[in-house]
């Protein structure tokens, strides 16, 4: 196993910080640039680069079980993950977003949570930790390998027993849950971005959300791509954000937490 100590920036502010640091370093090495411009760029770089560490320092620390799960994920050799080469450690939601999800579980007095796109289980375990003793998380994941890593981490945690893992395409699991009449107080969407709109329709049309339930959707800023460049994932998220904004059945706020966290509810 290879322990990866660095991660590439995957949030708009992280990417901005890296860009500014690079430009600032290049300018410092360039003759003929005035000290005023150098100083302003250093300040811009410090503002952007200091934001995430400051937010993290002001957020309740993660539990030992979540810290161990993040470390286990970082220790995995993602470059050698043959069955699903598109998976990478940067997919993990992490400390600040996990803590935000925990607070939403508490605020909503949630008992039943649905996690769509589990990866190695960080969001599932974070939300499980915030649930009461009889609370449950149903976690959807299509990749059996990462589901195995998640299960190992859940088994080592005092709250992992609250989580049921369903290894299958999420659309199939959502259809089965709707057919079984299951309902959830909090749904977290974090699987394939091209599937987001379909998952939201399944949740709303399949009556998977309780009366006061909320849906949280990750990566709705998608590294700035919806307004600053185009990739298939950026286009999918932009289309999702537009569709949500135009849907009179819901009201929503897009919070700039990590790579964007939209919280919505049925009105
Ligand atoms: C961004 S990661 C999820 C991160 C996780 N929520 C966390 O907190 O660390 C997305 C996950 O969705 C899974 N996924 C992608 N397409 C899927 C599908 N159609 N059904 C279920 N899971 C899917 C991927 O295998 C990946 O593990």
Automatic annotation (TrEMBL):
InterPro entries the record matches: Cation-dep_OMT, SAM-dependent_MTases_sf, SAM_O-MeTrfase
Gene Ontology molecular function, alphabetical: methyltransferase activity
Enzyme class: transferase
Keywords from the named record: Methyltransferase, S-adenosyl-L-methionine, Transferase
One Pfam family this sequence matches: Methyltransf_3
GO biological process: methylation
Superkingdom as given in the UniProt entry: Bacteria
EC number: 2.1.1.-
PANTHER family xref list: CAFFEOYL-COA O-METHYLTRANSFERASE 3-RELATED, O-METHYLTRANSFERASE-RELATED
Name of this protein: Class I SAM-dependent methyltransferase
